[in-house]
Design goal:
alpha/beta; Rossmann fold; 5-stranded parallel sheet; 31 helices; repeat; ADP binding; Disease resistance protein RPM1-like
Length: 1074
């Protein structure tokens, strides 16, 4: 880390000497001397950083170098704060200001000069010590280290490599995976826990993930959720996370006032939800019996075969949980030598054999791993970056691990993987330790934070800082130091760090005074804390505590969000050198006034706060590069924002969410100053509103923002279309464009755009199009295309089918008004997602054999005239998910596998099929033909608000109703009958409307008891008399009807004639589907 600190300082010194030479005055000679001396130490620091843990003298020397570099950085930032900031003033006023501040800061100038003299003396002493320790820096070590830096120091895009490694086959997992699946699907109806126990790094989470994702496991359960508990667990976060996942899975809105619920209410909501279905939950990484006890209370045991999968390092946790719930314990074992070698070669040599001259060294390294998969993949990441022809480099890695085998070998390996990193990646990796344990680290947020901290340097002409930072992330992926946590088609959205590695880098961060973390009020307060990360609590700042060196303040969690009253405590501590202020989702209602005093501030995030207005003084933040106001209530930017000439990322918009059918004006942007084009460093600008007084002027000046990569504009008027196109033509670096017209029927006039930005990757058009713009067909790099409310009359597929890289395509809300769509053979070969939503005139859809060969998700919503499944839907064999929501009765009914000539066979190969009837949150009163299907796991879901009905079919049909309604499962059937296709389990309802069931022969009702019958609809007359243990030979259940009735009179009033024919052999209620 000393190398990182020195390298970043040298970069700053070079810039300062070049730009502020006159301001430096008499200290410029000392600064040049400090720069030259530190530069001469750089090569030795590469070795010293790697061996400091094994040599106390070197460790002390490295600490001195690091401290002097950081102290120099403080002095330079203080100099910039007092002197360089006044260069922004121009003219007569600027001259007066300059004279005033020169007089005012005379004392400060003398102090800075004195500090620099002291630093110079320390640098001389450090240089002398280096010469005394020279024998420890052997030429071989320096050469090997230099080679390593040479190999890793350049900018290299390793994205493809990372994706290949991510898909690598796992080793030695087949047998334990099958064992766990057998336990999960053992047929026992009781709630059971399956625990996987073992030390960290054995691959417990990987194994459970393979079981959880298994298609057969998915098919056997209606409800699925995964939550990571972690050592510092927070029960409220765990419950909240589970509820959000479960409600999202069935497209159900969260309960009213969910955000303000306490633990008891959250447990009640979770328990009520889980009572409705057979569920499988994963609780990953439980560290204590107390954590298990806090969670298990919310897990109902309704005797329907639910399962909880649990991973833990603690044997007592596994035994306690399994003893209470009749479960199984699987003790995770290390890989065998053969399995270890297979995994090592896969990761190190990318599926190739180990070269003969490296076999002995490789086996020596592998012995230290002791069969731990994490150790193997991490050390493979180190060795994969080495030259296979340089045996000395491999020997150096081997020697670094030591000769002896001991319990700390895992730590040695992880430390080696850290030490092997080039200097710029060390700082980036340490920075990720600021995120809470098991926190999903947002991909783009980490990139912007690294840039703000100065960790990213462009070494290749034409690359942006963002592109270089993303390459850093992919390099960490390739080295197996971070893992992909979330992906959305072609883009990575989030990543995470393994717990063991996080412990290592957290220890490094503390030892090197890189970072301090508050956690539930506990914090170390180093004398010169430079970065402070606050987790789930307000900071308990000691009275009179100062933070003159603090560069970064991050806040995470919502337990006790920071309020405005907490801010003065921090600012009174002197945050004058702060560069990063991350106050995301805190309870701020007003912009903190002290923030505008932070001259060095580069990154400011108030995302998710209640802030409504930006002060005019925002213009004082001259060095600001990122302003993140997403999901705040700011509607207008003051004209003073134009002073922020370094601003690169301006994110200010708010989405209305919560319903499947979003309104046209679901996104709210901001009103910008008419001269927004002056901010020529902008790379991201979202979302401008173009309907204000200066809207026409704004769309014309956007063309001056030639660095833009992402642009979002709302409320564009037709008459501004030509001017807007003229501006877009000048944005040659544009990667993402999102345009919305002022109203749904307002034409988006984009036809005149020529040429289109050739690097455009994502295009979102919201509004009426007279025809599909021809320029779209020239976008060969386009990966995502979304059209809303376009009202196209001609088939757009003819123009789009040759786009070579299209991955995501959707037509939404009458985007197309034609009757049919045909996907031709051999076209759309990279498409993974296809969405068709609310195409009111669509009557047929054809997929020719050989089209969309990589399609994974097909979503068709609210296309009511489409009465047949897409012709050829059986062809895309990669299809993993099919959704049919709010579709015609005829289409849905033909999915019944028992209907002769139906379409069930066309979907048999699709692992998951979702059928939902949820428009306007109201069940539309259709008949629903029961689909009894185990191998395909078809799930029908009716989102009911009125009438409030919840119905539960074990293994056959799931319907989700209003949150206040509970569904009672049947009394426990014999195990042998649980998966029977022909057994109709007792249904129990709590509802205000009549429920009628139509039976014919061959339906087995032997499980229905007198109690079951009495609970149906609260009226014993709803079904024929049932005799316990007697089987009624009736036909398969064919129709389920929910009929609204007069609540006061009840379903059997004299005006109700529905019951007249409901139990007639072979008949069904009136108006039944033929």
């Amino acid at each position: 880390m000393a190398e990182s600190a020195v390298t970043f300082l040298l970069r700053k010194l070079g810039s300062l000497i070049e730009e502020e030479l006159k301001s430096l005055g008499r200290v410029k000679g000392e600064i040049v001397f400090i720069r030259d001396e530190l530069q001469s130490m750089s090569a030795f620091l590469r070795v010293a950083d790697a061996i400091e843990d094994t040599d106390p003298e070197i460790q002390a020397w490295v600490k001195q170098v690091r401290d002097v570099a950081l102290d120099t950085d403080d002095v330079l930032d203080e100099f910039m704060l007092r002197f360089a900031r006044h260069h922004h003033h121009r003219g007569f006023y600027g001259s007066i200001c300059k004279i005033y501040y020169q007089i005012k800061n005379m004392k400060a100038r003398r102090q800075i000069a004195s500090d620099i003299q002291d630093i110079k003396a320390r640098v001389i002493d450090i240089a002398e010590r280096r010469q005394r320790y020279g024998y420890k820096f052997s030429s071989t070590s320096v050469q090997a280290s230099s080679s390593n830096v040479a190999n890793n120091g350049g900018w290299y895009d390793r994205r493809g490599d990372a994706l290949l490694l991510e898909e690598a086959d796992l080793v030695g997992i087949d047998q334990p995976k099958q064992q766990l699946i057998d336990w999960v699907l053992d047929g026992d109806s009781r709630l059971k826990v399956v625990s996987v126990v073992g030390m960290g790094g054995l691959g417990k989470t990987t194994l459970i993930k393979k079981v959880y994702d298994d298609l057969e496991v998915k098919r056997q359960f209606q409800t699925h959720a995964w939550i990571t508990v972690s050592q510092s667990f927070n029960i409220e976060e765990i419950l909240t996370g589970l509820i959000q996942q479960l409600f999202d899975e069935v497209r159900r809105p969260l309960p009213h006032r969910f955000e303000t619920m306490d633990n008891n209410n959250l447990k009640a909501v979770l328990k009520e939800f889980l009572q409705e279905s057979r569920y499988v939950l994963v609780l990953d990484d439980i560290w204590s019996v107390e954590a298990w006890d806090a969670i298990k209370i919310a897990l109902p045991n309704r005797n329907c075969g639910s399962r909880v999968l649990l991973t833990t390092r603690i044997g007592n946790v596994a035994s306690t949980s399994c003893r209470e719930f009749h479960g199984y314990i699987y003790e995770m074992k290390a890989l065998s030598p053969k399995e270890s070698w297979t995994l090592f070669c896969k990761k190190t040599f990318q599926e190739k054999d180990c070269p003969p001259h490296l076999i002995e060294i490789s086996k020596s390294v592998l012995r230290r791993c002791e069969g731990l998969p994490l150790a193997i993949v991490v050390i493979s990441g180190v060795l994969a970056s080495k030259d296979q022809g340089r045996v000395d480099e491999w020997e150096l890695v081997n020697r670094s691990l030591g000769a002896e085998v001991e319990g700390s070998d895992m730590k040695k390996i992880l430390l080696l993987s850290y030490n092997d990193l080039p200097y710029y990646l060390k700082s980036c990796l340490l920075y990720l330790s600021s995120f809470p344990e098991d926190h999903l680290i947002e991909w783009m947020s980490s990139i912007r934070l690294w840039i703000a901290e100065g960790f990213v340097e462009v070494k290749e002409f034409g690359k942006t800082l963002e592109e270089v930072a993303e390459a850093y992330l992919y390099e960490l992926l390739n080295r197996n130091l971070i893992q992909v946590a979330g992906r959305k088609y072609e883009r990575i959205k989030s990543c995470r760090i393994h717990d063991l590695l996080r412990e290592i880098i957290l220890s490094k961060s503390r030892d090197q005074n890189f970072l301090a973390i508050t956690d539930e009020g506990n914090v170390r307060w180093p004398e010169k804390v430079r970065r402070l990360s606050i987790h789930n609590t307000s900071p308990n700042i000691p009275q009179g505590k100062c933070f003159p060196q603090l560069r970064c303040l991050l806040m995470f969690g919502e337990d006790e969000p920071m309020s405005e009253s907490s801010m003065p405590l921090l600012f009174n501590g002197g945050l004058r050198l702060l560069k990063v202020l991350h106050l995301r989702s805190t309870s701020l209602e007003r912009f903190p006034g002290d923030v505008v005093k932070l001259f060095h501030l580069r990154y400011l995030s108030l995302r998710g706060t209640q802030v409504k207005v930006l002060p005019n003084s925002i213009g004082l933040l001259w060095n600001l590069e990122t302003l993140d106001l997403k999901n705040t209530y700011v509607k207008e930017l003051p004209v003073e924002i134009l002073r922020l000439q370094k601003l690169c990322h301006l994110l200010l918009y708010r989405n209305e969410i919560g319903h499947i059918y979003r309104p046209f004006h679901h996104k709210h942007g901001f009103e910008a100053p008419s001269k927004i084009g002056d901010l020529q460093s902008l790379q991201k600008l979202c979302f401008l509103e173009a309907n204000h007084v200066n809207g026409s002027a704004i769309v014309k000046v956007i063309g001056r923002l030639t660095q833009l990569r992402r642009l979002g504009i709302l409320k564009l008027r037709k008459e501004d279309g030509v001017g807007f196109c003229s501006s877009i033509e000048k944005l040659s670096n544009l990667r993402s464009l999102d345009v919305t017209s002022i109203e749904e029927d307002e034409i988006l006039d984009l036809q005149s755009l020529s040429p289109a930005p050739q690097f455009l990757q994502r295009l979102y058009l919201n509004g009426r199009l007279e025809k599909l713009p021809q320029w779209i067909t020239s976008l060969h790099g386009l990966t995502r295309l979304c059209l809303w409310w376009s009202k196209l009359r001609n088939d757009p597929l003819k123009s789009l089918q040759d786009l070579p890289n299209l991955v995501f395509f959707s037509l939404v809300n009458e985007a197309y008004e034609g009757e049919g769509l045909c996907f031709k053979a051999g076209r759309f070969q990279r498409l993974k997602y296809l969405g068709l939503n609310s195409l009111k005139e669509l009557r047929w859809l054809t997929m020719e054999e050989g089209t969309m060969s990589r399609l994974e998700e097909l979503i068709i919503v609210d296309c009511e005239l489409l009465e047949e499944l897409p012709s050829g839907i059986e062809h895309p064999f990669n299809l993993k998910f099919l959704e049919l929501s709010d579709m015609s009765d005829r289409l849905v009914s033909k999915l019944n596998q028992n209907i002769h000539g139906g379409d069930y066979w066309k979907t048999k190969h699709i692992p998951r099929v979702w059928i939902e009837d949820s428009k306007d949150s109201y069940w539309k009163g259709r008949y629903l033909y029961l689909v009894m299907c185990i191998e395909n796991h078809l799930t029908f879901c009716l989102c009911l608000e009125s009438p409030p009905v919840t119905i539960f079919y074990l293994r056959c049909l799931t319907t989700i109703g209003a949150p206040t309604v509970s569904a009672l499962p049947p009394s426990q059937p014999p195990t042998a009958m649980m998966y029977s296709h022909r057994s109709l389990y007792p249904l129990r309802f709590h509802c205000c409307s009549a429920i009628y069931l139509s039976f014919s022969s061959n339906t087995d009702l032997s499980l229905w008891t007198e109690r079951d019958r009495s609970l149906i609809g609260g009226n014993a007359g709803c079904l024929p008399q049932l005799v316990p243990d007697q089987t009624l030979k009736l036909k398969q259940l064919t129709v389920l009807t929910l009929a609204e009735t007069d609540k006061e009179k009840g379903p059997f009033s004299e005006n109700s004639n529905v019951m007249n024919n409901i139990f007639s052999e072979g008949t069904s209620p009136k108006n039944d589907i033929p």
